[in-house]
Amino acid sequence: MLARFIVRAIFAALGLWISAVLLHAVSYGSVGSLIAAAVLLGLVNAFVRPVVFVLTLPLTILTLGLFLLVVNAAMIGLVSLFLHGFQVNGLLGGVVAAIITGATSWIGHMVVGRR
Q: What pLDDT is attached to residue 112?
């Protein structure tokens, strides 16, 4: 189980790195801060995101699920607030970073798979 979390964190770090390379709104200080951001993003997605998802469920239904992009961007923004070596500027940068990170995390989920 820990190995699966580590592999998924590596794919999340890869997504955050790709976001930082492609977007000027995302930056990181070092590889260590990028890995810490990926681990923290995994923890935030495990504990904070479900609460935010339930609270914003009516808006998510109203927008046919598109508001989840904003929720995911908010989770990445929350990570950037807690971690000084990782920074996301602006909502649009956060949304695009959420799309990129989500795509790489999805690929990581396909690689790791389910039990």
A: 79
CB atoms within 10 A of CB 23: 18
Q: Which domain holds residue 39?
A: 2-112
Residue 80 has φ and ψ, to the nearest 5°, of: -70, -25
Angle between helices 91-112 and 67-82 (to 10 degrees): 100
Task: Compute φ and ψ for 28, nearest 5 degrees.
Answer: -145, 155
Residue type, 78: L
Q: How many domains does the chain have?
A: 1
Separation of alpha carbons 107 and 113, rounded Å: 10
- Predicted model pTM: 0.92
Q: Give the span between the Cα atoms of 79 and 2, in whole angstroms.
A: 21
Q: Where are the beta strands (DSSP E) in 5-70?
A: 26-28
